[in-house]
Amino acid sequence: MELLTIGTIHSPFRESVGTPVQPSSAQPAEGKIEVFAPFTEGLRDLAGFERVWLLFWCHRARPARLSVVPYRDTVERGLFATRAPARPNPIGLSAVRLRSIVGNVLHVGELDILDGTPLLDIKPYIPLYDSFPAAARTAVISADDRFEQEPLTPAE
Ligand SMILES: C[S@@+](CC[C@H](N)C(=O)[O-])C[C@H]1O[C@@H](n2cnc3c(N)ncnc32)[C@H](O)[C@@H]1O
Questions:
Q1: 106 pairs with which residues across the strands?
Q2: How far is the CA of 17 from the centre of ligand 1 (A)?
Q3: Residue 105 forms beta bridges with which residues?
Q4: What CATH fold (topology level) applies to the domain 7-136?
Q5: pLDDT in tens, 81-135
Q6: Probe ligand 1: pick from 17, 25, 33, 58, max atoms within 8 Å of CB?
Q7: Residue 137 pLDDT > 60, yes or no?
Q8: Rounded distance from Cα 85 to ligand 1 centre (Å)
Q9: Pair 105, 114: CB distance under 8 Å
Q10: How far apart are the CA of 94 and the centre of ligand 1, in A?
């Protein structure tokens, strides 16, 4: 498995203390996402989405512990039942507000991410897929194999 850093997240937050814990609690918390040159072609058609998912590497996270007390709790919980950034693979996931795109820079709001965080991926936030109010359920839409590698050859 290989991960590529596709950009850098620039935010007003230099340390965890005082940084919002989720986009929903982060207003305005404006910042910029700088996408590196080899990847900018992939930004075509992204403008106009209200939000984007950012997947990022929490590069300043402590080593993972499998029991943690989440920010809005007083009781230890299993790590995977929380959104704590210190994880075996410290991947963060935030649906931030997309203000505009100028060249290779996304102007975003509602950040809960530290300045200088390496960016792993960007995906559009699509309410049809990403929000689950009871009234928004639709028929099943299934994937095909267009993004999947060839199956591995079974070991002999
Ligand atoms: C609770 S996490 C949630 C992140 C994301 N929304 C998620 O659910 O995966 C948000 C906190 O992670 C911390 N954080 C953000 N960027 C980080 C980074 N690059 N390294 C370590 N900690 C980070 C900040 O303290 C921030 O308040």
A1: 33, 101
A2: 11
A3: 34, 102
A4: Elongation Factor Tu (Ef-tu); domain 3 (2.40.30)
A5: 999 999 999 999 999 999 999 999 999 999 999 999 999 999 999 999 999 876 6
A6: 58
A7: no
A8: 5
A9: no
A10: 9
The residue to mutate among 24, 113, 117, 123, having the most atoms of ligand 1 within 8 angstroms of its beta carbon, is 113
Rounded to an integer, what distance in angstroms lies between the CA atom of residue 33 and that of residue 8? 6
**Mean per-residue pLDDT, 34-53:** 98
Q: Provide the mean pLDDT of the chain.
A: 91
Confidence (pTM):
0.91
Average confidence (pLDDT) over 22-43: 93
C-alpha distances out from residue 128 to 87, 103, 131, 137, 139, Å: 29, 28, 6, 8, 11
Q: Where are the domains of the chain?
A: 7-136
